[in-house]
Specification:
Length: 155
Amino acid sequence: MLQLTKRTEYGLIALVHMVDRAGEFVSVREIGDRYPVPRRLLAEVLKDLQRANLLESQRGALGGYQLTRSPEAITLGEVIAAIEGTPSLTSCESFGAAHAGECEIESNCPIRSPIHRVRKHFWDLMQHTTLLSLARPEPDVSMDLPVHAHRPAST
């Protein structure tokens, strides 16, 4: 099913750590000392986030990385796109324009449109989920309810 890569997980861990250290540069070593993540991979991920202008870096003894914008202005979607690209749910979505027509049932596929809507809603959620909301989540009472409790009662 839908699953973030380890690269994205490590990037999000680092970014949330930076939210807690707002205004300070944070080193790969500091993050690696705090969380059991591979430092080399973490360094690569932070460079990807820097190239996407989500982080700025500073060299030297007091150097490291810090957010370029406030955590409420950085979305989960931006982070995922910087590290993984835009996710797809089906193989036909990952073909792109260069491979159009490679699916034998594309013209009358019964799931293409519904899956596209699911993907769009999922991506919209990612684009509206901020780094601040990851760092300081609000309790969600509905998460404790069984799935059937969300359905309206039949009349």
